[in-house]
Design brief:
The complex is a heterodimer of chains A (107) and B (93). By secondary structure, chain A is an all-alpha fold. Chain A is built from 4 helices and no strands.
Chain lengths: 107, 93
């Protein structure tokens, strides 16, 4: 477990960040499941999941820094990578969806 | 004081697993191909976050490397599938 000598403020901040991140992620994926059309479904994961990932990475960075006593910033790599690449994926999927031929409505 | 943190990590892992289940249902149910690709994209991001929560719980940095690799390869896979939908082939000559 993450160190018994963890100060209280770090535990509380990390716990709040983890709960908020988990809720954002679950809400984003629930939007992916429940929304009616593809263009509406695009929004849930791209915002909810990115926000949830940011919260979880902040919590991880905070706990690692407090535990080891020095600044641990290598989680910034994942943050930068995901924040950079998630709009590219969304943009390409949107273009593909706009340009694909429509299927005729089934009987 | 670690009880709060334990509860929060457990709650976050539960939320991530729930989100992975939602994405998996959308992969199975999605009416068209782009829905399935979007759901796969969500699925790997959720798996990566599950690994990050596991890394916080165990205090080891090995899970971080695995999460970074999942992010890299998942991005490449999503881009390849989207390019295939867009152009009909993933790598153009």
């Amino acid at each position: 477990m993450t160190g018994d000598s963890l100060p209280a403020w770090a535990s509380i901040i990390a716990a709040v960040l983890l709960v908020v991140g988990g809720l954002c992620t679950a809400l984003g994926s629930l939007g992916l499941l429940r929304l009616p059309s593809f263009y509406a479904r695009m929004h849930g994961p791209s915002m909810g999941n990115t926000l949830g990932l940011g919260c979880v990475l902040l919590a991880s960075m905070l706990l690692a820094s407090v535990t080891s006593g020095k600044a641990v910033v290598h989680e910034v790599l994942i943050t930068v990578f995901v924040v950079t690449t998630s709009p590219i994926t969304a943009m390409l999927l949107m273009q593909a969806s706009v340009r694909r031929p429509k299927v005729p409505p089934a009987g | 004081m670690n009880g709060i943190l334990d509860f929060a990590i457990g709650f976050a892992q539960l939320c991530f697993v729930l989100a992975m289940a939602f994405a998996a249902i959308r992969v199975l149910r999605g009416p068209r191909a782009q829905d399935r690709i979007l759901a796969l994209d969500t699925f790997y991001v959720n798996g990566m976050m599950t690994l990050l929560a596991l890394g916080i719980r165990s205090g080891s940095t090995m899970y971080f490397d695995v999460a970074l690799l999942i992010a890299l390869f998942g991005f490449v896979g999503s881009i390849a599938l989207s390019k295939f939908l867009l152009r009909g082939e993933a790598i153009e000559p």
